[in-house]
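Design a sequence for this backbone.
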């Protein structure tokens, strides 16, 4: 399957300052992808390049395999929830959400069409010498521009075409000729209808098929009447025009459709009943949800979210993380999510892109990134860890802190200098003398679910997460299993 979005060698400089250094990234349809990294590493810039708000200095951005470097932001299949969500404080919740639709459906596209039209006529009017004809051209272009603003523009164009055809008929001798034949044909059909009506009257109510027969006959009559109507080609066109007029979208129907949609999306983000609240009477989390509804209502293929939850307190943030993830799953939209919060990235993402200093460090599932960090930066950025310089003596054999340990990694050169990482929750505390290193409990902090305990060994302090309490100053020993040691190359 072709990726939905590809970035190929994307770089960005701001006034000689390189902030992105060759970003290569593939994003699939319906994926929840998170750009994760410290402040200033280039997350927002990457997102803005995908959204079309910033041009890359070099490299390509492809959507469905097509280069979209020249496609402006409003024409891309993306919608953005910005780092500081920009709601309109003077509009209520309903109008803030509806805004997304109103803008998308009309103004941009209409204005573009009108611009093209004016450009075309400007030339014509300039070249026309006859003042009367000049005036006529001006009237024509005004009328056409008005038509473009009309929601029924396309229907009216079809009607104009049909009217033209009717006009042509008047000068068509064949049509005049055929009218006589049509009169005869119509009489014939009317006779047929009369016959069927007679038959209808004679059907006995006692007949077991009474209702079916009646229904069939009525249908036959209807079809014949329709045939008479359309016999005359002119009548046929006129009927088509009537049918088109019936489809006219009035301001009222447009408003009604819009309302249905806005309410549907407010419900989706859990804000039903809040339509007429003003924005400044909403909590931060509610405002955030309004911003998300406004972005979703256009049904973008891709939603770009720049730290959308940063302003929320922990509890609300966790709630919204869950809701957003659900939303993404249910709506089948690709999310590109920016955060510098590793926990948020780990809980929400299908794929995490860890960035540092304008470069991608590692791309992988949350499990990959957490369990198999590729280097010291990723290991330390993704949660607490014990990172230790070591030597890979041979396959499955690594030496650190003066001890040779069995491990599960291979493929390094003999005696290669490496770094190993051991996650705090993978280390166990045992009674003195029973583990791999002896040490003393240096500090204990309660973290809600577990204790964070630092054990000072001969070479260093190891951080350990455990639900068992050990008092400061206790002599202990620490241990871990071969597969708890993860060996990393030095970058
Ligand atoms: N318009 C700009 N002009 C000049 N420099 C810019 C511009 N936009 C961003 N930068 C610089 O580019 C670098 C990357 O910025 P970016 O906003 O992409 O970082 P970020 O990863 O989103 O950071 P944060 O987590 O703080 O939002 C920063 O050093 C920033 O100062
Ligand atoms: Mg940013």
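Sequence:
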């Amino acid at each position: 399957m072709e990726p939905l979005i590809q970035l190929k060698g994307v770089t960005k400089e701001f006034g000689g300052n390189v902030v992105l250094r060759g970003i290569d990234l593939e994003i699939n349809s319906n994926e929840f992808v998170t750009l994760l990294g410290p402040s200033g590493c280039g997350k927002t810039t990457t997102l803005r390049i995908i959204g079309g708000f910033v041009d890359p200095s070099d490299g390509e951005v492809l959507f469905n395999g097509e280069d979209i470097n020249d496609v402006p932001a409003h024409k891309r299949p993306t919608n953005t929830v910005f780092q500081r969500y920009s709601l309109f404080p003077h509009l209520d919740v309903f109008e803030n959400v509806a805004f997304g639709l109103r803008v998308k459906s009309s103004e941009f596209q209409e204005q573009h069409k009108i611009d093209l039209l004016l450009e075309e006529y400007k030339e014509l009017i300039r070249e026309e010498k006859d003042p009367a004809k000049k005036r006529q051209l001006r009237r024509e272009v005004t009328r056409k521009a008005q038509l473009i603003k009309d929601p029924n523009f396309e229907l009216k164009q079809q009607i104009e075409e049909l009217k033209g055809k009717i006009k042509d008929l008047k000068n068509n001798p064949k049509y005049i000729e055929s009218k006589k034949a049509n009169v005869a044909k119509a009489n014939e059909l009317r006779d047929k209808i009369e016959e069927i009506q007679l038959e209808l009257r004679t059907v006995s109510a006692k007949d077991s098929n009474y209702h079916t027969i009646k229904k069939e006959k009525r249908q036959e009559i209807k079809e014949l009447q329709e045939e008479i109507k359309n016999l005359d080609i002119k009548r046929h066109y006129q009927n088509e025009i009537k049918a088109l007029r019936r489809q006219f979208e009035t301001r009222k129907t447009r408003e009604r459709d819009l309302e249905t949609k806005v309410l549907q999306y407010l419900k989706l983000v859990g804000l039903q009943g809040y339509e007429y609240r003003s924005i400044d009477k909403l909590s931060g989390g509610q405002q955030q949800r309004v911003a998300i509804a406004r972005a979703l209502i256009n049904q973008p293929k891709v939603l770009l979210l720049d730290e959308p939850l940063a302003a929320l307190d922990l509890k609300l943030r966790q709630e919204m993380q869950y809701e957003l993830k659900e939303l993404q799953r249910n709506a089948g939209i690709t999310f590109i999510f920016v955060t510098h919060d590793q926990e948020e990235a780990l809980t929400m993402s299908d794929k995490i892109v860890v960035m540092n200093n304008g470069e991608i460090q590692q791309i992988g599932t949350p499990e990959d990134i957490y369990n198999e960090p590729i280097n010291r930066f990723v290991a330390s950025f993704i949660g607490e860890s014990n990172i230790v310089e070591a030597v890979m003596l041979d396959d499955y054999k690594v030496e650190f802190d003066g001890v040779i340990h069995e491990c599960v990694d291979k493929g390094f050169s003999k005696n290669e200098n490496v770094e190993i990482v051991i996650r705090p929750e993978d280390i166990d505390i045992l009674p003195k003398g029973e583990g791999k290193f002896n040490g003393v409990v240096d500090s204990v902090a309660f973290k809600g679910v577990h204790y964070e305990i630092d054990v000072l060994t001969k070479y260093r302090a190891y951080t350990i997460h455990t639900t068992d309490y050990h008092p400061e100053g206790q002599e202990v020993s620490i241990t871990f299993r071969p597969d708890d040691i993860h060996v990393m190359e030095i970058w």
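The chain has a mean pLDDT of 89.
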